């Protein structure tokens, strides 16, 4: 795996949190995107070479809605950049990790993504991310 690609933060109100993170980071949100397949609205920030993704649920049964109900707002996942997501998925499977999707899915910000179950990774949801333009 390569560097941390982004940190995902679950929020209740995307517009209010966007305004808050703009004030916090002194940076403007560079992209807002709805990812229908994940039932989320996202907003992205870049600061000092780091990337933050804010995530708000668009449906009651979604992963983010369940997370907010159970744990409240906060860090939802850490995403790592990978060069070859299929190879990395095979490697992790061989290492005994439980992947949450069999095939890479299309995620926000032009990425192919795959998640590792947080029960296998000390309670932290890990995301693999490959830039689609690197395929
Ligand atoms: N980080 C850490 N733990 C988490 C978690 C998270 N993000 N989400 C759920 N959990 C915990 C739950 O609290 C629960 O813990 P306990 O058993 O101790 O109570 C455990 O994981 C299993 O939870 P569950 O209720 O059995 O399962 P869920 O239906 O809540 O599903 C998960 C959990 C991780 C499998 C599911 O959320 C998932 O498949 N996530 C991947 C997809 C995703 O998160 N999409 C949204 C983001 C999309 C994007 O980045 O664009």
UniProtKB/TrEMBL annotation:
<protein>
    <submittedName>
        <fullName>Methylmalonyl-CoA epimerase</fullName>
        <ecNumber>5.1.99.1</ecNumber>
    </submittedName>
</protein>
<dbReference type="InterPro" id="IPR029068">
    <property type="entry name" value="Glyas_Bleomycin-R_OHBP_Dase"/>
</dbReference>
<dbReference type="Pfam" id="PF13669">
    <property type="entry name" value="Glyoxalase_4"/>
</dbReference>
<dbReference type="GO" id="GO:0004493">
    <property type="term" value="F:methylmalonyl-CoA epimerase activity"/>
</dbReference>
<dbReference type="GO" id="GO:0046491">
    <property type="term" value="P:L-methylmalonyl-CoA metabolic process"/>
</dbReference>
<keyword id="KW-0413">Isomerase</keyword>
<dbReference type="InterPro" id="IPR051785">
    <property type="entry name" value="MMCE/EMCE_epimerase"/>
</dbReference>
<dbReference type="GO" id="GO:0046872">
    <property type="term" value="F:metal ion binding"/>
</dbReference>
<comment type="similarity">
    <text>Belongs to the methylmalonyl-CoA epimerase family.</text>
</comment>
<dbReference type="InterPro" id="IPR037523">
    <property type="entry name" value="VOC_core"/>
</dbReference>
<dbReference type="InterPro" id="IPR017515">
    <property type="entry name" value="MeMalonyl-CoA_epimerase"/>
</dbReference>
<keyword id="KW-0479">Metal-binding</keyword>
<feature type="domain" description="VOC">
    <location>
        <begin position="3"/>
        <end position="131"/>
    </location>
</feature>
């Amino acid at each position: 795996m390569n560097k941390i690609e982004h940190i995902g933060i679950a929020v209740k109100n995307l517009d209010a949190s966007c305004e808050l993170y703009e004030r916090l980071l002194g940076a403007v949100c560079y992209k807002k995107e709805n990812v229908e397949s994940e039932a989320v609205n996202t907003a992205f920030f870049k600061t000092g070479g780091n990337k933050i993704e804010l995530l708000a649920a668009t449906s009651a049964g979604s992963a983010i809605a369940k997370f907010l109900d159970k744990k409240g707002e906060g860090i939802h996942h850490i995403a790592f950049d990978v060069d070859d997501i299929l190879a990395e998925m095979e490697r992790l499977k061989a290492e005994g990790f439980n992947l949450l999707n069999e095939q890479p899915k299309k995620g926000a910000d032009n990425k192919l993504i795959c998640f590792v179950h947080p029960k296998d990774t000390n309670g932290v949801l890990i995301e693999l991310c490959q830039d689609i333009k690197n395929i």
